[in-house]
Amino acid sequence: MCAALARRFRDRTGTSPQQWLLQQRTDHARLLLESTDETVDRIARDTGFGSAVSLRHHFHRMLGTSPAAHRAQFRGAAH
């Protein structure tokens, strides 16, 4: 990516393009975990993480919990 574009992106969003994309993917995965019964493998593929291992890594890094724990916590709170 062009350095000037990356600087403009950071100026506008406060984050790098890569971090922004990871946040978008993580947010989408979170919503799918809350609203569907799809497997973590399927959600990882559908959100661009490629593998459940990658999704679990980034999900925990960004949200401090695993996808399974998030789903269980959300479902427990919803019922």
Helix-residue proportion: over 70%
Number of strands: 0
Strand content is under 5%
Write down the overall mean pLDDT: 93
N→C terminal distance: 45 Å
Rg calc? 14 Å
Number of helices: 5
Structural class: mainly alpha
- In this structure, how is the largest beta sheet organized? none
The helix/strand order is HHHHH
Shape: elongated
Pfam family, one: HTH_18
Domain HTH araC/xylS-type: 1-73
GO molecular function, one term: DNA-binding transcription factor activity
Organism: Rhodococcus maanshanensis
Overall description:
The protein is mainly α and 79 residues long. It has a domain at 36-79. The protein has helices at residues 3-13, 17-35, 40-46, 52-63, 67-78. Helix 2 (17-35) packs across helix 4. It is elongated, with a radius of gyration of 14 Å. The termini are far apart. GO terms for molecular function: DNA-binding transcription factor activity; sequence-specific DNA binding. Pfam families: HTH_18 (PF12833). It comes from Rhodococcus maanshanensis.
Features:
mainly alpha, 79 residues
Concise account of the structure shown:
This protein is an all-alpha fold and 79 residues long. Helix content is 77%, strand content 0%.
Q: Mind sketching the topology for me?
A:
Elements: H1 3-13, H2 17-35, H3 40-46, H4 52-63, H5 67-78
Protein name: Helix-turn-helix domain-containing protein
Domain HTH araC/xylS-type: 1-73
Keywords: DNA-binding, Transcription, Transcription regulation
